[in-house]
Amino acid sequence: MAAETQVARVGIVCGSRSDFPIMEKAVEMLGRLEVPCELRAISAHRAPDLLLRFVAGAEERGIRVFIAGAGGAAHLPGVVAAKTILPVIGVPIPTQVNGGLDSLLSIVQMPKGIPVATVAIGGAENAALLAAEILALSDPALRVRLQAFRDAQTRAIEEDESNTGLRNTK
Ligand code: RP5
């Protein structure tokens, strides 16, 4: 039973260890939702064979959704999507080119036939939430945790008095 909960359900992969500070936000968010995940840096162009082996073995290991982050000519999410029928969520990594516009366009502009669901530049938290929503379709307990996350988020805004700005009325 305990071992079963340790099986990673979300496979997070990125092009370089330099992407870890962004991708670790996805790990953290999935941790809050109690969704087991794994994070690997495997470059699609420097280690393509390793990447293909990682993707090929993932479903058998228990992975049900991929989150793939890359920067620059960010082909990694598309390559992952090309080799699996599991959903792939792409995270464009911020770069020196207009803050990551190169990464965003490389990931979001997938030609038809192979989809990659793309989040905002650096949007690893939303990638994690979307992955959790996909898993929650067949995991009622996770659905409850996701709803609790949403409710707490809303409550924090409603109850935070510092959200009230200055008034000039009596
Ligand atoms: C991409 O190139 C990686 O995803 C990373 O965002 C970028 C730079 O990689 P490093 O030169 O830091 O390894 O493949």
In short:
The protein has 170 residues and is of the alpha/beta class. The chain has helices at 2-5, 20-32, 48-61, 76-82, 101-108, 124-136, 140-158; strands spanning 10-14, 37-41, 65-70, 88-92, 117-118. 5-O-phosphono-beta-D-ribofuranose binds at residues 14-16, 18-19, 43, 70-72, 93.
Descriptive report:
- 46% of the residues lie in helices and 14% in strands.
- It has seven helices and five strands.
- A five-stranded parallel beta sheet has the order 2-1-3-4-5, with helices on both faces.
- Helix 5 (101-108) links the parallel strand 4 (88-92) and strand 5.
- Helix 6 packs across helix 7.
- The model has no long low-confidence stretch (mean pLDDT 96).
- The chain binds 5-O-phosphono-beta-D-ribofuranose.
List the helices and strands and how they pair.
Elements: H1 2-5, E1 10-14, H2 20-32, E2 37-41, H3 48-61, E3 65-70, H4 76-82, E4 88-92, H5 101-108, E5 117-118, H6 124-136, H7 140-158
Parallel strand pairs: 1-2, 1-3, 3-4, 4-5
Bound molecules: 5-O-phosphono-beta-D-ribofuranose.
Comma- or semicolon-separated keywords:
alpha/beta; 7 helices
Number of strands: 5
Tally of helical runs: 7
Basic shape: globular
What is the terminal separation in angstroms? 61 Å
Mean pLDDT equals: 96
Major β-sheet profile: 5 strands, parallel
